[in-house]
Amino acid sequence: MTRFPQTRLRRLRRTPASRALVRETRLSAQRFIAPLFVKHGRNRREEIASLPGVARLSPDLAVAEARAFAAFGIPGVILFGLPEKKDETGSEAWDDAGAVQETVRRLKKELPDLWVVTDVCLDEYTPHSHCGVVVDGEVDNDATLPLLAKVAVSLARAGSDMVAPSDMMDGRVAAIRSGLDAAGFSAVSILSYAAKSASAFYGPFREAVDSAPKFGDRRGYQMDPANRREAMREIALDLEEGADVVMVKPALAYLDVIREARARFDAPIAAFNVSGEYAMVKAAAANGWIDEKQIVLEILTGIVRAGADFVLTYHAKDAARWLKEGSIPA
Fold first, then answer.
1. Residue 196 designated active-site
2. Are 193 and 249 in contact, with CB atoms under 8 Å apart?
3. Fold of 27-324
4. Three-state secondary structure readout of the chain
5. Among 66, 177, 194, 199, which one has the highest count of C-beta atoms within 10 angstroms of its own C-beta?
6. pTM, to two decimals
7. Which of 150, 196, 282, 293 is the catalytic position?
8. Over the Cα atoms of the chain, what is R_g?
């Protein structure tokens, strides 16, 4: 390798055209999945204080919001539900009349080309807000698996293109794949929250769906944030069990995990730019401390540069609009 002055890396940074030609990571709206929170009712919109610009929506308004996403080139949404009632098994999660199931049916009817992903978990639907069945004060892994499979089948029956188990029970991908196949939904894919850490970045989401644990915490089943090697084991196991896509969650403090997963696995990798990451940007922008547009696009570029094929992000609509306007610095 030649050295300065023969080598001058600044030569290709001189103009917008040269920078565009050699840009290694290209961000696009087609890499985004936008979250939607849905609840029963009609014409209902409830703003979420800790997630400015995000709201709980009735199915009709969720379809309208999804239509706006699609207009900006965002290819898909992921749905999270709020039940009318909660019980110890989270039975509304697999109720065919649930808010998520109704929204899925509407979306597939009115926006058939939209990719519809649905969360599979019990935390929003149980009074204790843990992700599985609680027995003697602990989440019972194996008792939870058939319930998660029931949820996935119900969501597939409604028309989901992809189900996304976020519970972190051991063996849940295999249980869901088996349940889907047995019910005739072999074409429905699985996005596994494979490396999901017990993170402090989830606070605003838990407010949005009232899912903060009523006792204890989730460290007994979500990953220790300190463990990167274990994350690779989780990903490998979920792929062996039949996951079509694996996800790292959260994203910003886990870019090393995304990067290592990209190096190790020849499979699609997603990352979740989670609620706390979004809320921090919004709070700083509201105080005039940062340029929100440039920060958001830089964050999303960094997540993709680390190796994510697509990003689930609350910034999706804003980022897609800015990209459409040509807001990436030339």
1. yes
2. yes
3. TIM Barrel (3.20.20)
4. CCCCCCCCHHHHHCCHHHHHHCCCCCCCHHHEEEEEEEECCCCCEEECCCCCCCEEECHHHHHHHHHHHHHCCCCEEEEEEECCCCCCCCHHHHCCCCHHHHHHHHHHHHCCCCEEEEEECCHHHCCCCCCCCEECCEECHHHHHHHHHHHHHHHHHHCCCEEEECCCCCCHHHHHHHHHHHCCCCCCEEEEEEEEECCHHHHHHHHHHCCCCCCCCCCCCCECCCCHHHHHHHHHHHHHHCCCEEEEECCHHHHHHHHHHHHHCCCCEEEEECHHHHHHHHHHHHCCCCCHHHHHHHHHHHHHHHCCCEEEECCHHHHHHHHHCCCCCC
5. 194
6. 0.95
7. 196
8. 20
Give me the residues paired with residue 39 across strands: 82
| Cross-strand bridge partners of residue 312 | 33, 272
Q: What number is the average pLDDT over the span 107-121?
A: 98
pLDDT tens track for 214-264: 999 999 999 999 999 999 999 999 999 999 999 999 999 999 999 999 999
How far apart are the C-alpha atoms of 309 and 317, rounded to whole Å? Answer: 18
Instruction: Please check whether residue 311 is in contact with residue 303, taking contact to mean a CB–CB distance below 8 angstroms.
Output: yes
How many residues make up the chain in this entry?
330
Q: How far apart are CA 239 and CA 173, in angstroms?
A: 9
51-66, pLDDT tens digit by residue?
Answer: 999 999 999 999 999 9
Please tell me the predicted confidence (pLDDT) of residue 183.
98
Predicted confidence band at 1 (pLDDT cuts at 50, 70, 90)? confident
Told to judge if 293 belongs to the known catalytic residues of this protein, a careful annotator would answer no
Whether residue 149 contacts residue 178, with contact meaning beta carbons closer than 8 Å, is answered with yes
Catalytic residue among 150, 249, 293, 317: 249
- CB-based contact 272:250 (threshold 8 Å): yes
